[in-house]
Amino acid sequence: MFYEFFKFLENQVIFKDILKRGVTEVDNLLRTGKIRAVKYPEWLANVVVVQKKNGKWRVWIDFTDLNKACPKDPFPLPHIDAMVDATAGHELLTFMDAYSGYNQILMHTDDQEKTAFMTDKGIYCYKVMPFGLKNAGSTYQRLVKMMFKEHLGRTMEVYIDDMLVKSERSIDHVAHLKQSFDILRQYKMKLNPTKCSFGVRAGKFLGYLVTQRGIEASPEQVKAITEIQSPRNVKEVQKLTGRVAALTRFISRSSDKCHLFYNVIRKNQGFLWTDEHEKALQKLKQYMTSPPLLTKPVEGESLQLYLARGRSTAMTNLLSKKLRHYFVSHHIIVVTNYPLKTILRKPELTGRLGKWSIYLSGFDIEFKPKTAIKSQALADFVAEFFPGLEPTTCDEVNNVMISDNKPLLLYVDGSSNVRGCGLGVVLKSSQGGNMVYSIRCEFKATNNEAEYEALIAGLDIALRLGAKQLHVRRNSLLVVNQINGDFQAKDSKMMNYLKAVKDRIARFEYFLIEQIPRDLNMQADALANLGSAFHDPSMENIPILHLTTPTIEAKEEVQMNEEVYN
User: Fold this and answer.
1) CATH of residue 410
2) Ranges for the Reverse transcriptase domain (predicted)?
3) How far is residue 425's CA from residue 544's CA, in Å, rounded to a whole number?
4) Separation between Cα atoms, residue 213 and residue 341, nearest integer Å
5) For the chain, what is the domain count?
6) Which of 249, 267, 406, 440 has the fewest C-beta atoms under 10 angstroms from its C-beta?
7) pLDDT confidence of residue 114
């Protein structure tokens, strides 16, 4: 009871203090001629006094009803990401902020009384544009764009009342500042000296730390995540997700790292914070201790967009909106495993796919498969991955490869293109032994068929070595999921390939297959492309095998070039 009484007294003191500061702020507005007294206004709003970051107070007017009656000014605001990209990489920067920028624009006489608000001292209206009006931001942006139109995008960037002067060479910065100051004097716009920084090499602009090296995350925002405590309720989880959203640009695959947090705040779900959530939070904190440095794209450079999700079409459409300023000004290469080009060009498309196809047709987008590797680089790939590979006999290989009871590691990949079909097989043992094969198929095959042929070839080699335990790693999503039972094989050929694989798997005492990123399967990938690119099997260090018929249609016929062992 006493606690509630003292809490009531405390609230009363705070309320009186806010009223006092509100009256003081109104007196300041009267003294500076920004407001005037008014009688019988048609519109009347309430006053809200808000404390700013610097400790000062600002009078906000609740113009909710007035804003509902006002038409929306469609004048666009600049894209923040595009402005930040255009700012990075300059030697010297100057950050300027207008002093109560909105209040430096006069209201039309006929509209002044519409901004009326009531206080303890009376009813007043604004003679200048106040904060809180629906179209205040668009009006101010129109003004500064008119003022600095010759310099925007060259030596200046302006987002409402945040102004920045940039110079690629420090020797030009004084001249650029003089041009900006001349315009400010011409329009009698005043700056806030406490928020200005002149001739610096780095600084905060629109929530980002801009430097000559590139774009960095704001240290304050990073600290807000690394020092946050484990959430104890839904509200604290919302605070966490809000901080994460502010740094999404610096968090690679943020949805994978943070999806557990968003699941907690879903509707109709109670608060549940498990060890899995805590582990994800600690991983996020560790990741944010060294956030990546972002660089701006080079003019005229093609940008590559990598998509690996099942809903690649939807992801392309979503990213084209989120990253529109990149899609408009650059040639975009979408690298994906899925036939998006074929899907989006079907004449019978309807519904969402039809809308996405029409929307994406306005951009310069090129779709490329992930398997595309230039043939002239294949030899370099092989030389890099196997610099000192010595030819070995089959007996020596057997001794090295299966000398212990640990599983062999098998990496496989298939490649099908206009040059032909090739398979890559890499076998590794815990003793350090390696076997590599580049196989050229003398028959046509699709990409999926080539992937299965590569796996079957690898299984057969492991069985001939006498291996009992095998751990397969490959990057083909379809094959791995069909073998694990997550995907169904509906095509008759795929069903036959799947049966052939499972028959071989049954001969192992232990078998595990998992999908890995393409970056971790580059050896097998290079060998597969090598097999599809070269018709001459006379290679010095890599045995070249030939399959004369598909494995599922006839008994395996393997021809080995024995010259490599001589």
Assistant:
1) 3.30.420.10
2) 31-210
3) 11
4) 36
5) 3
6) 267
7) 92
Is 157 among the domain residues? no
Query: pTM to 2 decimals?
Result: 0.54
Residues 405 and 545 grouped into a single domain: yes
Whether 558 and 462 map to the same domain: the answer is yes
Residue 268: the pLDDT is: 62
Are 424 and 528 spatial neighbours (Cβ–Cβ below 8 Å)? Answer: yes
pLDDT of amino acid 384: 39
Confirm whether 319 is domain-assigned. yes
Q: Which residues contact 229 (CB under 8 A, 6 or more apart)?
A: 236
Quick one: pLDDT at residue 564? 37
- Asked whether the beta carbons of 423 and 441 are under 8 A apart, the reply is yes
Angle between helices 378-385 and 522-533 (to 10 degrees): 140
Q: Which residues of the chain have pLDDT under 50?
A: 1-3, 5-10, 13, 308-313, 372-400, 540, 555-566
Q: Is the CB of residue 526 less than 8 Å from the CB of residue 539?
A: no
Alpha helices in 215-253 (DSSP H): 219-226, 234-246
Residues 263 and 344 in one domain: no
Query: Residue type at 448?
Result: N
Same domain, 309 and 432: no
60: in domain: no
Report which DSSP code applies to 98.
B
Q: Indicate the burial class of 371 (C-beta count within 10 angstroms; 0-12, 13-18, 19 or more).
A: buried
| Residue 318, pLDDT score | 56
217: number of Cβ within 10 Å: 21
Question: Tell me, what's the pLDDT at 204?
Answer: 86
Give 262-271's long-range contacts (Cβ < 8 A, gap of 24+): 264/231, 264/234, 264/237, 265/234, 265/237, 265/238, 265/241, 271/233, 271/234, 271/237
Containing structural domain, residue 277: 217-288
Please report the DSSP string for 39-97 in residue order.
Answer: SS-S--B-EEEEE-TTS-EEEEE--HHHHHHSPP--PPPPPHHHHHHHHTT-SEEEEEE
Residues 428 and 504 placed together within one structural domain of the fold: yes
| Chain Cα centroid distance, residue 256 | 11
Residue that finishes a domain, picked among 369, 384, 408:
369
Query: Among the three residues 323, 340, 369, which one is the final residue of a domain in this structure?
Result: 369
What's the confidence (pLDDT) of residue 167? Answer: 92
Task: Quote the CA–CA distance of 319 and 100 in Å, as a whole number.
Answer: 36
Note whether 518 and 419 are same-domain residues.
yes
Residue 381 pLDDT: 41
Q: For residues 431 and 519, state if they share a domain.
A: yes
Query: Token pair of 398, please?
Result: 């057997």
Give the pLDDT score at 310.
43
> Are residues 323 and 384 located together in one domain of the fold?
no
